[in-house]
Amino acid sequence: MQYHATSFAADGFNVDLVGYGGSVPFSTVRNSEKITLYELIQAPAFLKSVPRLLGYVLKVLFQSITLGLKLLLLPKSGVIFLQNPPSIPTIAVCWIVCLLRGSKLFVDWHNYGYSILSLSLGNKHPLVKFSKWYEHAFGRMSHLNICVTKAMKKDLQENWHIRAETLYDRPADMFQQTSLPVAHKLFTKLSQQYDVFSNRNIPNSTIFTTQSKDGTIEWLRDRPALVISSTSWTEDEDFGILLKALTGIEDSPLPNLICVITGKGPQKEFYRSEIQNRQWKKVEFCLPWLESEDYPKLLGAADLGICLHASSSGLDLPMKVVDMFGCGLPVCALKFNCISELVEDGSNGLVFQDAKELLQQLKILMADFKTDKTKLRQMRQNLERFQKMRWHASWKNVVLNILEQKIKYD
């Protein structure tokens, strides 16, 4: 949503961005004179202690009231733009506000809310069935729609009777390959918080880079490989696949490897414990919480990205891979229905089905990762075409065009 907000602002729209706190927005959002931030109140903590179903109902009621009042008290807008999911109660509340204020409801379909709910409750659970009905019913009330894949566009048309245009996620300008001086500065900063980045044997060095007395910065010849994965630590990402694959590296002739996993979510502490309970010889882990400006720099300095996103609907694409590609970072991605719309197997990345396949890919890509003649280097070159189309240009071609057509014919 921050990408949409900055694009709307860049094209002259005044934007009221409504959402929950918990993380610092991009500097482009914070510093824009066209964007005003409004923070929603979190549901009371005591709702977690009541029976699950009752707590869910009370939470939805609380969110409906707080979101509805917030939107009604804001200056009237021509369009209410929302990203789905979350679906409940957002779509219904926004539709009612649009009805009362004469605004258009514009939905960005990133996935289906009911499909995410089914991961923990199962498809036959009454709450999942209600969620699916609700999402179908109120989703059709929207005036304008975009979605993230051609497969989802087809599904919305055939099964939901919703016409949507496909807007592929594209990287923002901040996602670029990181220069060596910037990478060294970042590693030095991170080494003050996380020992895995530090190098106590060589002065003015990190585990990856070194700075000589004349100021020259170089990659260390015997440095480990830097592998990064970004995860929401939820049921639709089986982190156990990566752990199992990395276990196989322990007995291989591959170089040492540092695996950085960013993000927060419900299963993070469980897997942190899993990592700590195993004996690792060649692999070190770091689970940092990065500042928003540091995340793209780390991606741009890494050797390989790993994506474990499985897609609850089989129709969405992982934004984390888009960000990695924007930094020129090749990716090994878990296979699912429409991943081929983003990852071209063997060209800009590799696709795996299980831990065994991922291990084989790591052995191929990490064997000689520091030279210019590797498969990784070839993939980086293939990503140069992808990097040329950035978010705002793609957004203008689709979203701005939809709005202009709507204004033209209304």
UniProtKB/TrEMBL annotation:
Could you tell me which pathway this protein works in?
A: Protein modification; protein glycosylation
**Which UniProt keywords are present, listed alphabetically?**
Endoplasmic reticulum, Glycosyltransferase, Membrane, Transferase, Transmembrane, Transmembrane helix
Q: Enumerate the Pfam families for this protein.
A: Glycos_transf_1
A single GO cellular-component term on record: endoplasmic reticulum membrane
Specify the protein's topology with respect to the membrane.
Single-pass membrane protein
Q: State its location(s).
A: Endoplasmic reticulum membrane
- Gene3D superfamilies membership: Glycogen Phosphorylase B (3.40.50.2000)
Instruction: List, for all copies, the residue spans of the domain called Glycosyl transferase family.
Output: 223-382
Which GO MF term does the entry hold, naming one?
chitobiosyldiphosphodolichol beta-mannosyltransferase activity
This protein's source sits in the domain of life called: Eukaryota
Record's catalysed reaction(s): an N,N'-diacetylchitobiosyl-diphospho-di-trans,poly-cis-dolichol + GDP-alpha-D-mannose = a beta-D-Man-(1->4)-beta-D-GlcNAc-(1->4)-alpha-D-GlcNAc-diphospho-di-trans,poly-cis-dolichol + GDP + H(+)
Name of the protein in question:
Beta-1,4-mannosyltransferase
From which source organism is this entry? Answer: Magallana gigas (Pacific oyster)
Kindly list the organism's lineage: Eukaryota, Metazoa, Spiralia, Lophotrochozoa, Mollusca
